[in-house]
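Deliverable D4.2, example record:
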Amino acid sequence: MPTLALILESSTTPSASRSIDRALLARATVEGRGTLRVSRFAGDVLGLGRWHLAPRGAPGVELHRRLSGGRATATGAGFVHVSLTLPHRSALVSGDPLALAPEQVLNRAVRGVLGGLEAGGLPALYPGRDLLTVAGRPLAVLGFEVDATGATLVETVLAVERDQSLLPALLDRADPDGIVAAPMTLPNDVTSVARALGRAPSFDELVTWIRHGYETRLGIAFTADAPPAAGDGDGAFVQSRARRSDLDRRARTSTMLGVFEAHCALDDAGRLREVMLAGDLLAPSRTVTRLEEAMRGCPAVVDRVMAVIDRVVRAPGDFVLGVGPLRTIAETIVEAAR
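Output generated by the structure prediction step:
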């Protein structure tokens, strides 16, 4: 039976949360043990995935960049974050880090959350990709990161009192330039725990459900723990990916999760001088970095770009999910370069 540390934070900040998740990833690598952390923020927060470009921002809306990839979300007051940190992506089921294929990781990791919601009376499902649903309506958004050591973070943004129909309003306020692409989500398109259940559970009650779900669905045992000390502010991380004037060639492609973007510049010979990938993708941070670096000097021809992608993503532990066929990446880069 795996044993996880359990950290509860009924009130924290996005910056502190990122710092703690980084520390827990490092601890998972060094100590070989995982952590389940349940937390919540106050106020209006626009949650970017790791690969989104940062918007302009606005007073009254805090920008948060998750360590994991995936789509943009509303978060803050009315939402709860569930962060599962593991020594490697397969740690819930095997000592072999590669026992689970990348597309199986979320399926396994969210079974505890599903079991917890069921314990609270909600028939939640994981239909695939990056969402949990109730009666076909999204209730939670998922993402995951695998760092350079293989340590894995799975993040769940759970709508409790508010839901993802808040996202368009947050984008209107914080992203008037339309930097972050997201669908127009209406109240009837999504749901929350409070709406589906007919009441809003307390934070402690929700924690009890989630703990029960992991214990019963995955056989997890827990030991109570305190969060590591949060580091200094990391505003630079939030702004770490932003639109750049020197990357003046751009293209967007609709994908399984939302939108995939390529931003690039060409050298004097018409080859790719620099490439930046962005949008709603799920990939280890090392994979995206390696892809961007490997593109330098590559001719802007689909087959040549595809050969680079195959070489990078073929390595153990590297993957890109959420964009469909990997050829989508190559075609989007070439379209941007035209």
